Amino acid sequence: MATNSRYSSPANRLTYTSTIASNFLKLATEDKETFLDIFQRIENGSDISAVAAFCIDEMKKNKAKNSKKVLKALEIIGASNGFEQFHKNHTPMTYAAKKGHNLVVEALLRERLNVNLKDKKEQKSPLIHATIGGHENIVKMLLNNKSVNVNDTDYYLLTALFYARHFKNDSITRLLLDKEAEYFLTEADKCLALERTLKANKLELASEILPLLPDLVECNIIASDVSQCKDAIFEAISHLMKSNIIGKEKTSIFLLQKYGSFFSTTEIQTLDQMARDNQCFDVLSFIRKKWENVFFSFIIFDEIDE
């Protein structure tokens, strides 16, 4: 993309863009046609999507006079790899919600942008971002929008209510509960969430999920969910034993006590081998005692073969 020499250096480009982009908020109310044109292209995944975040940061200042120049500013800053690298995973709504830009979220909602459109990195919705950031006014605005999905989950299968409680934000927790928000959508989600948070090294989240794991015997869970839970827990134990996580053996034994009866003989043998390979001797000892009959039978057959 060819650019005017006036904007050839990064410093000149940023100075110019900062001034022009500061009028973005006024654009939402005074020049809706241009505003929609920009954001429709952003929401459609155009290569200028990274520009939105920087413009959003400048929206409150309202210093520039000619709102039409925003289009030129977008074109210029769109060539900057730095902004693409930093902001590429956000939509305008998720970025504004994360940063706590109340007026920006209000403008975007007024223009009927998708209130549930998630970021790409962790699939967090604007509501989840606002909740994590503790931006209560933005949470209120989003909850008042009839299109918002209050129980939307992120990649880790965690809801806004989970994060509100995790960060001990009582006021946002009450707002979400008033809208009948759920902590988890299904029992199987708890097991899958544990697996995903462990693999991503989100240990604080994982430790909060551990005591919430379902009892597959007592809970009324359908067969497919039981299978999902079992597979997720197997993967979680496997990851733990291969990791350097403090307390990994204690946690692995806890999971084996709770879910080991659902594992096949082959799966128990696989975990036994993993425990040996990764020198998880407490886990190995637990497996050998709990499934003594499995390993005793193999010893007998080995002796007969010899």
Throw out a few tags for this protein:
single chain, 306 residues, mainly alpha, 64% helix, elongated, disordered N terminus
Total count of helical runs of at least 4 residues: 19
Q: Can you tell me the overall shape? A: elongated
Biggest sheet architecture: none
Number of strands: 0
Oligomer: single chain
Alpha carbon gyration radius: 26 Å
In terms of structural class, how would the helical and strand content be classed? mainly alpha
Overall mean pLDDT: 77
Uncertain runs are 1-22, 43-51, 57-86, 299-306
SSE arrangement, N to C:
HHHHHHHHHHHHHHHHHHH
> How far is the first residue's CA from the last residue's CA?
75 Å
Strand content: under 5%
Tell me what the structure shows.
The longest helix has 20 residues, at 223-242. The protein starts with 9 loop residues before the first helix and ends with a helix. Residues 1-22, 43-51, 57-86 and 299-306 have low confidence and may be disordered. 64% of the residues lie in helices and 0% in strands. With 306 residues, the chain is an all-alpha fold. α1 crosses α4 (49-58).
